[in-house]
Write a structure and sequence with these properties.
Length: about 850
């Protein structure tokens, strides 16, 4: 008996259990691969480099739409076999393509100067692109084949992504980053087995009457192939373990070379979704913590704590404050010299050096607040003895909490608040943090710090000096605005800024600095050979410098003093607007303190620094802009190629523009809203794992549930789309006005309660966001089913464009602007939906 193709389609549609499970697992594998690559690339290279590579790899979704447009009908004729082969290849490509990418002699530092390195970068991108394209093709092909049940398949896709993200984050607590890739590959091969079972139950119609040929018994052959692939993966993982190749310029690479030379010892490694922690011991470590020329002795023996390969903190191998004499000669010691038995709050302390500093000046009580619980665990556990139990000294309290959230939830007052998290080297050449959110270094965050000071208390932050100045100028401007937000009319009377030849320290107080304070400051700076750049003290001579720096032409003072004079003058806004870097204070609505990029300054840098001008830019911002340009160019090709093919294959033109526009809008708006909510909820929960692992997973799960039930609620897809976009726009606009206030009111709630509130807030919006895509595909399936793969690809391309567009807009205009834009674009998508082919009913 031979069944027709239509009869097969009806029978297959009635038995969706296996395809739904397979799509669920493939989707979990894709999101797991995305998160695992982010961790691997963050450890191997640089934060912005991983962002670039991952965004390029996600273009595989767009490429899958192009592939399905070109060969989709051929693949669909042998649907079970095609999905099995694609899934099998996807699973094998995960570790193999990553190994191949690591084998390339790529040096990202020279991509802009070497055509060979540029070519290697392209090859690197293409290798990581392959697995995403294969996985996305499986999902897109399933949506094509079961187009009449697209709500179910799309729901499985979103549910799989949500569960897969949570599953991967849990695995990151126990497995090294590179081993995650083998786990993902194994999960995907399980999906391949499910496709084999589906192919055995529902073979292609054409194969029933075939007595000979390679596909006579495809399920058995494919099962052997999948089983063999699993064996190959196990052998690879066992006999040829994968090792991450660390960028040679990272601190981790340097200490690994020392380890090979027996000059360093690796003590331990800890893994988590936040970061990989490494601890090394070496006699070559001599971190001086900005100590000046007056230092009488070298630093004590020390350990280094590395976070994702970067130096995060120094642990002095000492047992008493007397062994930390070097700290007396750092600029960070000045606020302690100006206080008597202070009560101290250290925000972001890592290795305990600032605890020893506080102890040397007889601090009455020290509270350390560290956002990464594993660092607190490390300092109170494995490193407790080596560090002299510095986190457990009498009068010492260590709290694992986000610093900003701690300030919001606690009312205690302090004599000194030290922003340890902001201490260290300036952004400089690498600009690793330029598109990283920091809610502590915003105008509102610093104002909150000032509120937690006792009268006469000091807020202190120290950063490396730069030429031209930027970090410390921005700190000064932000503190000025923070003081003004507290009702202080003359912020210059509350701020001191001084430096040695290495670093600049800025102090701020909620009360004006008096003559006695000025006298003490002068004596301290003379003793430590510090140059005062700003103080409300008439006796300070800014032209006398121990470490002379350049300043405005014809003047004897430095650019630091010039910037301070302008910031505390009526010309502040003109100065901030015209300075060579963007030093406008960060706000909670745009929490990008470390972004200093300004397009208008490029010609000046080219003129002054010649061929090295690019090294003066903030590369993180430039990379995000580059990603957007790449996405636009490559995405345009991926969407135009299918159009040309469709035009040649069919004379019909109707519906293509509406279909492309609609699914492009859905892709970019979904990612815009998701990005903003991730940032908002991370700030609210104070924990990126809770935000990414919990809220985002819940977001995807509720979107999947929305897709599953929308068809039951509305049989008319156009009406479902209209209701959804109106609801999404209403929620997005409401959240712009209520989220920040609501979060401030509930900041002191227990973490579990705040997490429940975050999920409750995300769920209705996410539920509605699961409606527009499947209902749009239902319309297209009715009117122009050949456009389904193109719609899938266009949505994928736009999804990749969403994050860089969102970041650039958030930096320029704020997170609220991004949410409002997303609401408007969803409304536009609702209007375009009326022009979709099949929107008014089945094609005639």
């Amino acid at each position: 008996m031979t069944l027709s193709s239509s009869q097969f389609s009806e029978k297959q549609t009635a038995h969706l259990a296996l395809p739904v499970l397979a799509v669920f697992l493939v989707s979990a594998g894709i999101i797991g691969l995305e998160l695992a690559l982010m961790r691997c690339l963050s450890v191997m290279g640089w934060h912005h480099f991983s962002y670039l590579v991952l965004s390029t790899a996600l273009l595989g979704f767009g490429a899958s739409g192009t592939l399905l447009t070109l060969v989709g009908p051929s693949l669909e004729r042998r649907f079970g076999i095609s999905c099995t082969v694609l899934t099998l290849t996807f699973g094998l490509s995960v570790p193999l393509c990553f190994r191949a990418a690591q084998a390339l002699p790529l040096d990202p530092q020279y991509v802009l100067y070497s055509s060979r390195q540029a070519a290697l970068m392209v090859a690197y991108h293409l290798l990581l692109f392959v697995p995403f394209m294969l996985g996305a093709t499986v999902i897109g092909l399933s949506l094509m084949h079961f187009s009449k049940r697209v709500h179910v398949l799309y729901g499985a896709n979103l549910l799989g992504s949500g569960v897969g993200g949570l599953w991967m984050i849990l695995l990151m607590f126990t497995l090294p980053e590179e081993d995650l890739l083998y786990v993902i590959a194994g999960l995907i091969l399980v999906a391949a087995v499910i496709w084999v079972a589906y192919g055995a139950m529902y073979p292609p119609a054409a194969s029933l009457n075939v007595a000979k040929g390679i596909w006579r018994r495809p399920p058995a052959r494919l099962l052997v192939a999948v089983t063999g692939s699993m064996a190959v993966l196990i052998l690879l993982a066992t006999l040829w373990p994968m090792e991450l190749r660390i960028d040679q310029y990272k601190t981790l690479a340097s200490v690994q070379r020392w380890e090979d030379q027996s000059d360093a010892e690796h003590l331990l490694t800890m893994h988590s979704p936040r970061a990989r922690l490494d601890v090394y011991d070496s006699p070559l470590f001599h971190e001086t913590l900005f100590a000046g020329f007056t230092t009488p002795s070298p630093p004590p023996p020390q350990l280094h704590i590395l976070v994702d390969g970067h130096l995060a903190g120094t642990v002095f191998k000492i047992q008493s404050p007397q062994e930390a004499e070097i700290l007396d000669h750092t600029p960070m010691s000045v606020p302690y010299r100006m206080s008597e038995r202070p009560r101290v709050l250290l925000l972001g302390e890592v290795g305990g050096t600032n605890v020893w500093l506080a102890r040397r000046f007889d601090a009455d009580h020290v509270t350390v607040v560290q956002g990464n619980p594993q660092i607190v665990e490390l300092m109170t556990g494995a490193l407790a003895e080596a560090s002299g139990h510095v986190f457990s000294l009498p009068g010492m309290e260590a709290v694992a909490a986000d610093p900003r959230l701690f300030l919001q939830a606690h009312e205690e007052r302090y004599d000194i608040i030290q922003l340890v998290r902001a201490e260290g080297m300036a952004v400089g050449v690498s600009s690793l943090l330029s598109v990283h959110e920091d809610f502590l270094l915003t105008r509102e965050g610093l104002a909150l710090c000032l509120r937690r000071l006792r009268p006469g208390g000091l807020l202190a932050v120290t950063r490396q000096q730069q030429d031209p100045p930027r970090d410390n100028v921005k700190i000064l401007a932000t503190l000025a605005q923070a003081l003004e937000s507290l009702g202080i009319e003359e912020p210059g009377q509350h701020i001191i800024q001084f430096r040695n030849y290495l670093a600049v320290t800025t102090l701020a107080s909620p009360t004006p600095l008096d003559a006695e304070t000025c006298t003490r400051l002068s004596l301290i700076c003379e003793e430590l050979q510090l140059d005062v750049e700003w103080a409300p003290c008439p006796e300070v001579d800014y032209t006398e410098q121990f470490a002379r720096l350049t300043g405005p032409p014809g003047e004897d003072y430095s650019y630091y003093h010039y910037a301070a004079r302008e910031i505390f003058s009526p010309q502040r806004e003109e100065f901030l607007k015209d300075w060579v870097y963007d030093v406008q204070p960060a706000r909670d609505n745009s929490p990008y303190f470390y972004n200093f990029f300004r397009w208008a300054s490029i010609p000046l840098f080219q003129q002054v620094y010649g061929k090295a001008w690019f090294r003066k830019l903030e590369l993180g911002y430039v990379v995000v802009a580059g990603v957007l340009i790449e996405v636009v160019i490559v995405g345009s090709l991926l969407t135009l190629v299918p159009l040309l093919w469709l035009k040649r294959r069919s004379g019909k033109r109707s519906g293509r523009l509406a279909t492309g526009t609609y699914f492009l809008l859905l892709g970019i708006t979904y990612m815009l809203l998701e990005m903003v909510l991730i940032i908002k909820f991370t700030h609210f929960l104070g924990d990126p794992i809770l935000s990414a692992g919990g809220v985002v997973s819940a977001f995807l799960v509720f979107s999947g549930l929305g897709s599953l039930v929308s068809r039951r609620l509305f049989h008319n897809p156009r009406r479902a789309i209209t209701v959804a976009v109106l609801g999404i726009a209403a929620f997005a606009i409401a959240y712009v006005f209520i989220l920040d206030g609501l979060f401030a009111l509930t900041a002191a709630w227990p973490t579990a309660t705040r997490f429940g509130l975050a999920v409750l807030l995300a769920s209705p919006l996410a539920f509605l966001m699961g409606w527009p895509f499947p209902n749009g595909l239902t319309c297209v399936e009715r009117g122009r089913p050949t456009l389904i793969p193109w719609a899938w690809g266009a949505n994928g391309v736009a999804s990749v464009a969403g994050p860089p567009v969102g970041v650039l807009l958030a930096v320029a205009s704020g997170l609220s602007t991004v949410m409002l834009l997303a609401a408007i674009l969803y409304g536009c998508a609702g209007l375009v939906a009326w022009a979709l082919p099949g929107a008014r009913g089945p094609a005639g």
